[in-house]
Amino acid sequence: MTTRWIATGLSHDLPNGAVMAGQWQATELAVWRSATGKLAAWKDRCPHRGMRLSHGFVRGETLSCIYHGWVYGTDGGCKHIPAHPALTPPAAICAEGFACVEANGVLWLAPVGMAEDPPRLVDLRPVRTLSLTCDLATILGVEPALGGSDIIRGSVRIGGQDEEICLLVQPRPNGITFHALCSARADVVQVSRWLEALRRSAEEKVAA
Amino acid sequence: MIRLHDYVLSASCYKVRLMAALLGVRLDLEAVDFHPGRAHKSLAFRQLNPAGTLPVMVVDDLVLTESTAMLVYLARLAGPEWLGPGTPQASAQVQQWLAFSGRLAASLGLARLHDMLLYTGDIEALRRDGHLALRELESALTECRFAGHDWLVGTAPTIADIACFPNVALSQDGGVTLDPYPAIRLWSRRVRSLDRFVEMPGIHRLHELRPAPAEA
Ligand SMILES: N[C@H](CCC(=O)N[C@@H](CS)C(=O)NCC(=O)O)C(=O)O
Ligand code: FES
Question: How far is ligand 1, taken at its centre, from the CA of residue B167, in Å?
Fold first, then answer.
């Protein structure tokens, strides 16, 4: 796989002061937003003993590991070690950073140093994130109007109208997750129910 | 005086303790040795609740053995706004979520008892049913978001939210991750930041609302 931007979530699902698990290809990441809204994404391994940072919590401009409370700033550097309160942690203790940017209400991840910007998605609005236990080929099989590889697009009939649908695909170990967007004028409730129907048909096809 | 026969690690008991705390109602807690003592299966306890389950609430000669009924009792007593807006539609929706919380207990709840207290059961089937229930909850909460609402019924928290919250928040204990459910995670944050929220082992108040530990 080439180095590229991969969508890991929708902006509205990561409010200020929250952390979530994300993925870039097979790499597990912790993606979080500070109290003032600064985004950061790191490998989901605490430099202390490798526990998941996405299980941690945000306080102000820092993320704390839930396990032994090491505190990291938005730059990834360790700021505080509760077991050694007087110590200024050495600069070498640092979470391994990824690039995380937000565009069109989508959170995108890539290794640091990507030259180009994430894909531009014009005239689309975010709907919701859904996880499926089947693969992409099955989805494309049940809905021939959709096509693509990591950005699936197509015009489909929803509630008597032709609506533009865009699915940003995030492969997962036992299936895929997609972050769905639709035309700005579409009825999001109808689109959301249509997406559930698509998931049901695709998963049933695998079970059959 | 409201007496609650209680076990600290039980999701169903926590449901009632949480509701009472949010309402500011004092409970007289009677700890039952659920594990390893299995005191809820003793002859004496089954005289009180023949089903041999926890929690049990006793108020004078009223004996309640269903946690959802206890939520109704507490809300009616101390905070009727927690019963929802009271329209036919809203009252029915609240009832539907109370029943749904039983499905959460029968899937996520049993998966947790399987993993923590070595209950027998088909763990893969319990987890799969748990995910199916979580998908329904995720879809409902997503539609709430589209409508600009934060809670399951109406515009304020109700007993419906409190009934469903514990087994969802503890799902990881049964090997069911909430990673695929962003709307559920946001709803859980809202519950955990309610005024007078109380914790149980495995469920914490939103950390950023807790005081930072004192610097040594
Ligand atoms: N009546 C149900 C029972 C709740 C329930 O299943 N409680 C568990 C502990 S969390 C229990 O007592 N299990 C023992 C058993 O089922 O034998 C309620 O109040 O919601
Ligand atoms: S593993 Fe993170 S603080 Fe110990």
Answer: 12
Domain containing B90 equals: 83-208
Cα–Cα separations (whole angstroms), residue B100 to B2, B10, B177, B198, B204? 26, 18, 19, 23, 23
How many structural domains comprise chain B? 2
Q: How far apart are CA A143 and CA A198, in angstroms?
A: 8
Q: Which atom of ligand 2 is nearest to the CA of A70?
A: 3
Question: Is B214 a member of any domain?
Answer: no
CB contact under 8 A, B142 and A58: no
Question: Taking CB atoms and a 6 Å cutoff, what residues make up the pocket around ligand 1?
Answer: B 10-12, 40, 52-55, 65-67, 105
Domain assignment present for B213: no
Residue B107 and residue B204 in one domain: yes
Q: In the structure encoding, which two tokens stand for residue B156, read together?
A: 């304020």
Residue nearest to atom 14 of ligand 1 (CA): B53
The reply to whether B95 and B66 lie within a common domain is no
pLDDT tens digits, A85-117: 999 999 999 999 999 999 999 999 999 999 899
Q: What is the 3-state secondary structure (H, E, C) of A142-162?
A: HCCCCECCCEEEEEEEECCEE
Q: Are residues B32 and B67 in the same domain?
A: yes
Closest Cα of chain A to B100: distance in Å?
20
**Residue B108 carries which side chain, given as an amino acid letter?**
L
Report residues of chain B scoring pLDDT below 70. 208-209, 211-216
* Same domain for B160 and B98: yes
Is B173 a domain residue? yes
pTM for this predicted structure:
0.94
Residue A107 has which token pair?
A: 């959170």
Nearest-Cα residue of chain A relative to residue B188: A18
Label residue A208 by pLDDT band (50, 70, 90). confident
Distance of CA B139 to CAs A176, B181, B187, Å?
Answer: 18, 9, 12
Is B108 within a domain? yes
Tell me, yes or no, whether B49 and B89 share the same domain: no
Comparing CA positions, the residue from B50, B81, B61, B65 lying closest to residue B16 is B65
Residues B11 and B72 in one domain: yes
Q: Would you call B56 helix, strand, or coil by DSSP?
A: strand
